[in-house]
């Protein structure tokens, strides 16, 4: 090895050492966040924070385990290098969600109007100030009378669920896949309550709505990775342009919604038993930001439902 090559090698090694040292001290400083504030926290793992369980264990199980180790009203964790406070007190949760909600408008998860309109334009993930406008418009839609009507529709579907369990599993003494069954129930319920479409995946697995829904709820490594990044590491999700809903699902929901609208406009029939008419009124009343574009209306109205 000549002198020039040796110098280059030493320089590269020095750069690597400096970079890793900087990363180490960056995380070390960040991981003192809760300690410096006197708040008990879960010990983080370098780079991953408290997300080292990801893809090996359920998030719900992990939060349950953390809750058992922390009996206080709140405790700290780290989502990668970002500190996060976990609230366990119902009183504090009520203050955050109700009394002081104007200080906690935006959720941490990643959303993008451009790459994932269906996953972004809904009350759960939409950002301010659009969130406030949507919330104000949606609140009158859910009066006690309207909720009663929706509940009646859900109860009809629940009877189909009970009948299917009895017919296909109890009578035949067959094991039951509860996740699939309840996914079918959710799919049928959305079809009933939002679109007014009386299709039943519980009675007919070839239901077109279930065809697209089952792919949305199917758990795969790639979908698990997408969900984890979107909810816990939005910086990475933004860089990779990950989506909560696939493009085929987005296009199908768009087609389904507007197909229902056109059918009702052509035959002159309306129905207050589902949310289509209410969502159409919302579309007219709600003003989206210019960058969202008018093409987002259908995604917004479905997501709001």
Number of domains: 2
- The strands making up the biggest β-sheet line up spatially as 1-2
Under the CATH scheme, the architecture of the largest domain is Orthogonal Bundle
Low-confidence parts, pLDDT < 50 over ≥5 residues? 288-305
Q: Summarize the biggest pleated sheet.
A: 2 strands, antiparallel
- Tertiary shape: elongated
Order of helices and strands: HHHEEHHHHHHHHHHH
Q: What is the rounded distance between the termini?
A: 69 Å
Main CATH class of the largest domain: Mainly Alpha
CATH superfamily grouping of the largest domain: Cytochrome P450
Structural class: mainly alpha
How much helix is in the residues? 55-70%
**Mean pLDDT over the full residue set:** 78
Number of beta strands: 2
Strand content: under 5%
> How many DSSP H or I helices?
14
EC number: 1.14.14.1
InterPro entries: Cyt_P450 (IPR001128), Insect_CytP450_Detox (IPR050476)
Enzyme class: oxidoreductase
Main location: endoplasmic reticulum
What does this structure look like?
Its EC number is 1.14.14.1. It holds the Pfam family p450. The protein is mainly α. The chain has 2 domains: 39-104, no CATH class; 117-304, Cytochrome p450. 59% of the residues lie in helices and 4% in strands. The protein has helices at 3-30, 33-36, 59-69, 90-99, 117-120, 130-138, 144-170, 178-195, 208-217, 221-232, 234-240, 247-267, 276-285, 297-304; strands spanning 74-79, 82-87. It has a two-stranded antiparallel ribbon. Helix 7 (144-170) runs antiparallel to helix 8 (178-195) and helix 13 packs across helix 14 (297-304). It is elongated and about 85 Å long. The N and C termini lie far apart (69 Å). Mean pLDDT is 78; it is low at 288-305.
